[in-house]
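Sequence in, structure out.
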Amino acid sequence: MTDAAPRLVVVAGPTASGKSSLALWLAQQLRAHILVVDSRQVYRGMDVGTAKATAAERALVVHHGLDLVNPGEQFDAAMFVEHARGVITRAQQDGVALVVEGGTGLYLRALVRGLMAAPSRDEALRERLRAQAAHEGWPVLHARLREVDPVYAARVEKTDPVRITRGLEVFELTGKPFSALEAEHAFAQRPYQVLGFVLATEKDAHAHAVAARVTNMWNGGLLPETRQLLTQLPPDHPLMDTINYAQARDHLVAGMPATAAMAQMRLRTTQFAKRQRTWFRKETWLTTVTPGQRQEILAQARVFLGQT
């Protein structure tokens, strides 16, 4: 990495931590664009349930990384990094600062620390794994993953079809555990100069934010948005297992009471945020900050970007 490498201000954090609000404010102060790092906001039509930036927010600050593909189309970390590199190159050429904002840890790590070499998707293999899961359940496949790659399996939920499939896919195609490939790569690349922050929130404040978000989503269009998605995807599609959409689907398709569905949304959001915090604690290049440190963050960003 050289002094000519692009400079990125990163605002990371768990879901419902307020990172989007902080990134929007920061971008306005820095006259910057925002590059969103979110594995679900890349999909068109997944707006309410992913807390995607609104039209009004996008009118205030240019957002990149949103609405890149249709639901059901292939998208992964490598595709995101390719897109992000183009955004960063154009921003540097135009003299525009970038605030990178998001909570998808793998995508963020791949962007700022490099993408490890791994085999491409094998759709035939994935179909076989999905068929096995439909017959035996994802916990059975998770047990198989634990046998071949206990390190990676320890980070993966027993009902996470995306990561279970990827872990088994990599092992079957290479004969190596996914975690071994990670260790070999070590995410040691440094393509950009980065000033990174991760937002921490007090437990009660986060619980309140989660509850408010769930209520706003449920009353603000989540159900019609989910109905529309169900015209494009089968109910058991992995994308329909995304938090918020899964509970709306269960309400619409299986008759789960609204109160129960919303309670599940709150629970799963809280659990997901906990896993995100665990992930970000391992990213030593991120400095922990609180929502009350906006001015301090802005001052550091201005010095980093040479805007003083």
